[in-house]
Amino acid sequence: MTTSSTVDLDLGFAPTSHPELLIWVSEVVELTTPDQVVWCDGTADEWDRLTAILVDRGTFFALSEPANSFRAISDPRDVARVEDRTFICTENESDAGPTNNWMDPVDMTTVLTEEFRGAMAGRTMYVIGYCMGSLDSAEPKFGVEITDSEYVTVSMRVMTRTGTPVWERMGTEAPFVKGLHSMGAPLMPGRQDVPWPCDNTKYISHFPQTRTIWSYGSGYGGNALLGKKSFALRIASAMARDEGWLAEHMLILKLTSPADDVRYIAAAFPSSCGKTNLAMLEPTLDGWTAETIGDDIAWMRFGEDGQLYATNPEAGFFGVAPGTGMATNPNAMRTMAGGNSIFTNVALTDDGGVWWEGMTEQAPDHLIDWRGNDWTPNADTVAAHPNSRYCTPIDQCPTAAAEWNDPRGVPISAIFFGGRRASTIPLVTEAFDWQHGVFLASILSSETTAASTGSVGVVRRDPMAMLPFIGYHVGDYFQHWLDIGARAISPGALPKIFYVNWFRRGDDGTFLWPGFGENLRVIDWALRRIDGLVDAVPSPLGYVPTSGSLDLTGLDIDHVDVDTAITPDTDELLAELTLIDQWYATIGGNKLPDALRQELNWLKARLSGYPSELTDSDGNPIR
Predict the structure, then answer these.
(1) Are strands 176-182 and 212-216 parallel, antiparallel or unpaired?
(2) Measuring CA to CA, which residue among 83, 127, 133, 87 is closest to residue 108?
(3) What percent of the chain has pLDDT over 90?
C-alpha cells in the first residue's frame, strides 16, 4: 500500500484485518458520522496532500524556510494543555488520587458519547496507526488515533512511527491503545469552516483500566496528539505500574568523556525548565561529546544485566520555541533548519520565515505576531505566544545518537531531577540512596510556566516532573518507584539520583549559574561522584559539592557565586518543611508510603541539628 486509503463508510478498503480495530472504527464512524474515512499510510505523498489541504484552509502558511515547513496559528482559546479539563476515569475515585481530576468512567463515557455524536459531520476521519518506541521491539506498544484534524495527522507523522509498517506489524491480534479525538466543530450545511476549529467545551479523558483516551474540543498538541502525554505518560504510567517498568517525563542523553567513557543519563524537568536544551547539550568542557536520545519522555525497564535501560518512545521533538536560539540550543535550531517541521503560534517574518523571542539577539523590524497583527520591537506584546511550539523530526538532529531508535534502550547511570527555583534548592544535590532520591523527587517543585493554562510564576509541587501526567494515585506512584528500587539485583545496579536547580538567584536577582552548555560541569561532577573520583559533603538535603570540586576550567564566573549556588540555605529549607508537610497531607496518610514519611522526618532532624548534628556516630547522615 503506497497511498492513503480513502474508503467508503463500510471500511471495506481498510489496510488491516485486525478484528478489534475494525469493529472499533465502525463504531466511531456510526457515532461521529464523518463524510469519509482515510486510513493513514505515513508516506511523503500523504504529508504533501494533507499539508496542501491545511494551506488551502488557512490553517498552515507554507514557509520560505525551512524547507517543507509550515506555520500554524491556533485559536486564542486553544494554546496550551488544559489541565483543569484533563480527567483520569477509574472505577474508584481513590485510584485517581488528589492530583488528578476524576470522573466515573460510565458517566464520562455518557457525556462524551453525546459530545462526539455527529462531531465529525462534514469532515474527514483519519485513522492513524502508530507505535511508541521502535517497531523492532520485542513487544511494541501500539496506538491507534482516530481524529478529524489534518493538523493532528501530520503532526503525529513527525512525532511517532506511523503508517503502513505499523499496520503490518500489528497483524490481527496486537493490543493497542484506543485514542479518539475530535476538534468538536462539525461542518453542518451552511456553516463556514475556520482555520483552527475547536470547541469551547473541552475534555481530555483517560481510561487507564481499558487503555483508552477520548479527547474532545481542542486541536492543541498536548491535548490532541494522543501518542504524546496522553499515551506515553498518563496511560503508559499505569501500564508501567502493572508491568513493572517506568514511564517518565524525562530526557535521555549520551555523554562521552575525554577518556572515551560513555555514560547515559536521564533527567526530569517541568516544561520550560531547560529539558530540551539539556537533551541537545553542546558541551563547553574540552573533550566531551553529547548526543541526543530523547528530549521529553523515557520508558525504563530492567535489562538482563539488572540495570535500568531507557528508550525514547517518540520520533520527534515538540519543543517550546521562545528562548530557543543559537545561543541557547544551537542543535535544536540546526534540527529545525533541516525542514519538514511545523511551527505553531510563532511570529512570521516579512520574508516568509519564523521568529520568536530568544531566537536572535535582536528582533526583526517588522513581524506578523501569533495573533495575526503587525508587530514591531516597540510593541507592548510578545510576537510569539509564550507556549509556541516547534514540531520537528529527531532524525534531523545533528547530535542524535545512533542508539535513539535502539529497541534495547540504553543503560542509565544517573537520573537528574530539577525545577525552576529562584531560592532554597542548591545547584546540585546527590541523594543518599535510591529511597532518599525518590523522596527528593517526590517533593520536587518549580515555578509554573506557560506550557499549561493558569497563573505563571507560582511555585507548585511537581513530583518527578510528572504532576500533570501520572495516570493513577500519586501515592501509589511513589510506592511504585520504591518498588522498582527494591526489585534491583543490588543497590549498585540502580542509577544514582541527583537533584539540580540551574535557576537559583543571588540577592541582586541575577542567576548564580550560567546554565545551558555549562550544565555539563554539574553532570561531570555527578559522574565523577559515581566513580568515586570527587569529594562531597553531607548537607541536610543530601551530598553537595565541596568548594572547588566543580570543574570551572575556562569559565569566567565569580567563585563566590558558585559557592553560594552549591550551599543549602537552612532558613529557606526550614520554611520549605511546612510546604512539604502541606503537600504530603494532600496525598493522604493511607497512601503516602511510610518510607517517604520517614525520609521527611529525617530531613527535619538533620535541619534541626545542622551543622553540628548532621551525622550519626559513624559519620553517616542522620537517616
Answers:
(1) parallel
(2) 87
(3) 89
